[in-house]
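Reviewer 2 asked us to include a model.

Predict the structure of this chain.
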Amino acid sequence: MGHAYTPGLKVTRATVIRKERRLPISGEVLVSVGDSVTATQVVARANLPGNVIPLNVAGRLGIQPNEVPDAMLAKQGEAIGKGEVIARSKGIMGLLKTTLKAPADGVIESVSAITGQVILREPPIPIEVKAYIDGKVVEIKKNEGVVVENTVSLVQGIFGIGGEAIGEIAVVVDSPDQDLAPQLISENHRGKVVIGGSFVSTEAMRRAVELGVICLVVGGTDDYNLKEFLGYDIGVAITGQERAGLTVILTEGFGRLRMAAKTFELLKSLEGKAASVNGATQIRAGVIRPEIIVPTGLPIDEERIQDEGVLEKGTLVRVIREPYFGAIGKVVGLPPEPRVIVTGKVRVAELELENGERVIVPRANLERIETL
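Predicted model (structure tokens):
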């Protein structure tokens, strides 16, 4: 049987996943290989150097730069508190002394008799990295972080905004083609990952923020709605750093797109379970997909995993470009000879769409949907 290879969008009931959790700077790893960790457990921490505050002591006290060291009441390396007097001039005949108070908590890092400047460094900023998923530590990155592994159910989306969050899955629609209307979101969904159907509006996203929902998962939305919700246009490089108070994951793309039946069925079967979600998306080199991860402990079909990426008859795929953008179908043919289309000669696949229609689509326009 002929086959080809195409990028895979995973909608997987059981697969092994490894997550690298790394600090941005050198720090301390708090766990060991073989340790079991929870999604919210801190596995590594570091201290980011505090902000630097330059103080023109000579100018503030009205003295010469070479007089600054003698005027300092707080010495180099000494910790001081906000509002504490750190320098005082001698004044005139012991009178009319001028003082300088610390504008913030910190440590006197340097005192210069040449420039008259004193450098105050604010306290270090603690950075903590959590495991993100329940699992076992399988690798330690010395002074940097860890790799956590587990068997999970995994749903990857097409596009998302917002960063990592952890919460219980709640399905609020009856079918994958039902809109996620604002009134379907209630106080009961605070801290939860809410699963919708085909579309989410700006109003629904705003209501979700008001009620403390951590994530919305739907088939699609309009670019206009996201812009209105965020207050600005989304960049094309990478998402996930938005400070909107909500993670949003689109499983199908932009527009009023019904969530794929298999995706909806899998998420519905996981209702009530804790999920790790991340809306970070990068569509160019080094693709990053938004994701919903639920640890399951289910057995893995190793032979099927080795076949990931293979495109053959019977493979379920999504079309990722017009004119059938967003359509889901099954591969029913893989013609060996290239076909001539507007852009030139390309390899194609014959698909049977969910509505029964058969179409010819360039293989480069297909994305495999993994359904382990």
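The chain has six helices and 29 strands. Residues 202-210 form the longest helix (9 residues). We have added this to the supplementary material.
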